[in-house]
């Protein structure tokens, strides 16, 4: 306990482990390779400011933006897509989520199959679904609604089945002990405790859908994105910018309303 | 048992409320559907159309899309997601130190937080729409779009993990007369680095999906393959591309989730699983109770 | 030398932590500060290195006025003051040596320390500090893998690495068991004697205060109610400072078995 300063029992500085070094080297190599593959070009960062195309973004033609036929009409369509797909997707998600939770699944095969299917469905990006639907049933909001319904279902079952997983199993056991059949037992034993979360998750999915439905039109699935895509192809970036401003204001307002509703629910 | 005690009446209003909610939902549905140009035969025809296409999708034409270089395109999506994540990570990290309320003064952290919020509000696709005229079509546009968008979420998550650290070491470095930069590097950085790097990986998983989508508007990656096959109604090829994409997405998810678990548990010596759950709840905006 | 004149600290929210403190501490003294929690012990230590800003009055450390000093001056003052904390305040996820090297941050150029390119003489200073507290063999171990007593010694080594003229210890043993507490107090005493570093220690345990202190300062509700040689301290003094009888909880010897009576020292 009373050592004197000196070169006595100093430990040797540990060398970096070969594994650490090789992982770092591999990651660096991969990053360099990937950067070349994507055409990494840092000059964009400074040349972007002198790009003559910027002039095309300005000034914003507000007259055109506020002309109801140009933006308002498709915007309403966007909401209609978001609303119907939230209702359908979240409605379907209720039984599927119960099938996907180990607590409430009626049997093991149902549990495994529903999980596997939903994982695959979620692995397909939302706009891929939109494009598939557009191809299958034609351009327009109808296809977009189908795509977003699937997307809502995939997101909702993930969120809600986790809520069900975490629910108190006590009431469910009580309902089963009383001899209840599966569905009624769920109805009385689990649903009341998780229902506020269900509504809150649904509102959240609606927010996601409003955002997603804005870009659906880029692949022909209706809504405001259709106008965005058209103006983009005519190189009317001033109009594009004007629409974006409106979109963000509206999306922001919806989020604020939905967030405050969700806070009151949970 | 005789009913001599007075039983309470069922509370009024619950029924009425239920019916009101049901009515609102029905009205919302009718209003929505009215705007979708749905005719009865379209509605009835849709499942049939979808089924017809689904049948053409089996079996997927792997050999044909392989010849066209679809595998390379899938990898291009992965490269875009990776470099986008790297850009987002490198730019968001220093900003996060300037945005955390326990280490940054108010005049700098408020504007940076607003910057994160603004960036998060713009989807990658919209960023790509703005960027393509500047950078031209191709993977670099998608990479930039993903990189910029990632700054928003990664910055927010990193800020939150900095705000949740133990403030003792900060005080200790302050008491030795260290500068702010030294304090960040030696008191804060070691505490947050493992959490933040697991966030980076998590964002990479999300970005792989995002970059696949970006290809659909010409910003590089596998999306363009899918679009061109679908436009020409070459469904076996389209389904092959789809299967490849889903396979890669699921593989990356699995590997990345395993690595994240290791980063989080390995660095503390004890399990700390709540972090990745937190990351998910950050992403979804829903706080787990 | 430290000189406090009419020093008062009022926290935002109106809590008066210190009121009208006048105090002079000469070089090389070993001062123990006692008082109930909330009496202002921690605040007293922290105004000395400017971690807490005085509301009024003057704090002069080695000829430099701390109250109202510029950030650069403050860093200068702090670089000569080591501080040890109740909760050690180590970075658990990095090595012991890195923790001790933090004591060198004020003298190493920021770019070098940021990149981890510590100069050889600073590494040497950190190693010497670790040797002085007897845990140099743990230099490359992760700080979280040490016991509480070892962690506090890393804390002391970090302060020593600053090559300080003044050492502040804020309840250094409050989180430790009795045996380790004595070892840590012994380390502090040895450092004071061998290196002549002025030392201020906040303590809760009265028997430790009597055992290790040479000069005792008593704080009660933000005011200094005692200042004198430890030899003049009686149970009466402690009762005055605490405003109540002394209980077993106030003694290290009994501290780990909570009080059932009001036994005097």
Q: Which structural class should the secondary elements of chain B be placed in?
A: mainly alpha
The CATH architecture of chain A can be given as Orthogonal Bundle
Our count of helices of chain B gives: 12
Q: According to CATH, what is the topology of chain A?
A: MetI-like fold
Shape of chain A: flat
- Please provide the ordered H/E string of secondary-structure elements of chain A: HHHHHHHHHHHH
**Tell me, what is the CATH class of chain A?**
Mainly Alpha
- Per CATH, the superfamily of chain B is MetI-like
The computed structural class of chain A is mainly alpha
Work out the strand percent of chain A: under 5%
Number of strands of chain B: 0
Protein chain pair with the most extensive contact, residues per chain: A-B, 69 and 67 residues
- Total discrete domains of chain A: 1
Write the layout of secondary structure elements.
The complex is a heterotrimer of chains A (266), B (289) and C (265).
Chain A: H1 18-37, H2 43-47, H3 62-66, H4 72-100, H5 108-123, H6 126-137, H7 141-165, H8 170-177, H9 182-189, H10 191-216, H11 224-233, H12 237-265
Helix pairs in contact in A: 4-7, 4-10, 4-11, 5-7, 6-7, 7-10, 8-9, 10-12
Chain B: H1 14-34, H2 40-56, H3 62-67, H4 70-99, H5 106-121, H6 124-135, H7 139-163, H8 168-175, H9 180-214, H10 223-231, H11 235-268, H12 274-284
Helix pairs in contact in B: 4-5, 4-7, 4-9, 5-7, 6-7, 7-9, 8-9, 9-11, 10-11
Chain C: E1 2-10, E2 16-25, E3 30-34, H1 41-48, E4 56-61, E5 64-65, H2 71-79, E6 81-84, H3 96-101, H4 110-115, H5 120-132, H6 148-161, E7 166-170, H7 178-195, E8 198-202, H8 206-212, E9 215-220, E10 223-229, H9 235-242, H10 252-255
């Amino acid at each position: 306990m009373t050592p004197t300063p000196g070169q006595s029992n100093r430990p040797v500085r540990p060398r970096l482990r070969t594994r650490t070094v090789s992982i770092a080297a591999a990651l660096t190599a991969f990053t360099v390779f990937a950067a070349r593959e994507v055409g990494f070009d840092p000059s964009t960062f400074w040349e972007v400011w002198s790009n003559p195309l910027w002039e095309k973004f300005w000034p914003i033609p507000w007259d055109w933006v506020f002309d109801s036929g140009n933006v308002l009409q498709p915007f309403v369509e966007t909401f209609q897509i978001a609303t119907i797909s939230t209702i359908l997707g979240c409605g379907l998600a209720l039984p599927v989520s119960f099938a996907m939770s180990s607590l409430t699944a009626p049997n093991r095969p149902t549990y495994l199959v529903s999980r596997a299917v939903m994982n695959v469905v979620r692995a397909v990006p939302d706009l891929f679904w939109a494009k598939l639907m557009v191809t299958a049933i034609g351009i327009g909001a109808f296809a977009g609604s189908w795509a977003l319904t699937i997307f809502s279902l995939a997101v909702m079952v993930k969120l809600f089945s986790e809520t069900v997983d975490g629910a108190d199993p006590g009431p469910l056991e009580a309902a089963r002990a009383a001899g209840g059949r599966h569905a009624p037992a769920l109805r009385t034993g689990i649903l009341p405790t998780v229902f506020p979360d269900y509504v809150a998750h649904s509102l959240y999915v609606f927010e996601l859908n409003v955002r997603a439905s804005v870009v659906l039109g880029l692949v022909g699935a209706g809504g405001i994105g259709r106008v965005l895509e058209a103006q983009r192809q005519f190189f009317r970036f001033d109009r594009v910018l004007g629409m974006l401003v409106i979109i963000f204001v509206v999306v922001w307002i919806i989020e604020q309303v939905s967030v405050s509703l969700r806070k009151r629910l949970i | 048992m005789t009913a001599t005690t007075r039983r309470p009446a069922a509370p009024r209003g619950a029924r009425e409320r239920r019916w009101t909610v049901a009515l609102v939902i029905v009205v919302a549905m009718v209003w929505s559907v009215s705007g979708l140009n749905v005719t009865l035969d379209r509605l009835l025809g849709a499942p049939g159309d979808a089924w017809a296409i689904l049948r053409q999708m089996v079996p997927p034409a792997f050999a044909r899309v392989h010849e066209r270089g679809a595998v390379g395109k899938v990898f291009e999506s992965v490269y875009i997601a990776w470099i986008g994540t790297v850009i987002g990570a490198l730019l968001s990290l220093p900003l996060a130190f300037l945005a955390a309320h326990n280490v940054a003064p108010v005049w700098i952290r408020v504007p940076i937080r607003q910057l994160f919020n603004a960036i998060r509000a713009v989807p990658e696709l919209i960023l790509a729409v703005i960027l393509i005229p500047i950078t031209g079509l191709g993977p670099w546009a998608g990479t930039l779009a993903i990189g910029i968008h990632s700054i928003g979420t990664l910055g927010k998550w990193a800020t939150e993990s900095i705000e949740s650290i133990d403030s003792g070491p900060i005080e200790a470095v302050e008491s030795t007369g260290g500068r702010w930069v030294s304090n960040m590097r030696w008191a804060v950085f070691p505490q947050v680095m493992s959490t933040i790097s697991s966030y980076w990986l998590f964002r990479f998983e999300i970005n792989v999906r995002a970059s696949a989508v970006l290809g659909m508007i010409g910003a590089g990656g596998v999306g363009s393959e899918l679009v061109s096959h679908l436009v020409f109604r070459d469904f076996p090829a389209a389904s092959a591309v789809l299967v490849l994409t889903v396979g890669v997405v699921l593989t990356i998810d699995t590997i990345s989730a395993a690595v994240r678990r290791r980063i989080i548990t390995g660095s503390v010596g004890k399990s700390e699983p709540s972090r990745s759950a937190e990351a998910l709840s950050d992403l979804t905006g829903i706080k787990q109770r | 030398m430290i000189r406090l004149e009419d020093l008062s600290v009022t926290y935002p929210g109106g809590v008066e932590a210190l009121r009208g403190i006048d105090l002079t501490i000469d070089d090389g003294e070993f001062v123990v500060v006692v008082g109930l929690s909330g009496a202002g012990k921690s605040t007293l230590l922290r105004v000395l290195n400017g971690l807490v800003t005085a509301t009024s009055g003057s704090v002069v450390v080695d000829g430099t006025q701390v109250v109202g000093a510029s950030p650069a001056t403050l860093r200068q003052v702090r670089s000569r003051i080591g501080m040890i904390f109740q909760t050690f305040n180590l970075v658990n996820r990095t090595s012991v040596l890195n923790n001790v090297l933090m004591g060198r941050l004020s003298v190493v150029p920021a770019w070098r320390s940021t990149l981890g390119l510590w100069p050889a003489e600073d590494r040497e200073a950190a190693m010497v500090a670790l040797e002085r507290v007897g845990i140099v063999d743990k230099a490359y171990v992760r700080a979280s893998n040490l016991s509480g007593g070892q962690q506090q010694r890393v804390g002391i080594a970090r302060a020593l690495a600053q090559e300080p003229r003044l050492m502040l210890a804020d309840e250094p043993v409050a989180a430790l068991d009795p045996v380790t507490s004595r070892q840590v107090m012994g380390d502090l005493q040895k450092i004071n004697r061998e290196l002549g570093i002025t030392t201020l220690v906040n303590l809760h345990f009265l028997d430790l205060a009597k055992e290790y202190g040479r000069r005792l300062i008593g704080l009660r509700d933000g005011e200094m109610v005692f200042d004198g040689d430890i030899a003049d301290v009686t149970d009466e003094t402690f009762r005055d400072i605490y405003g109540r009888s002394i209980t077993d909880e106030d003694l290290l010897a009994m501290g780990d078995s909570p009080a059932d009576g009001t036994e005097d020292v």
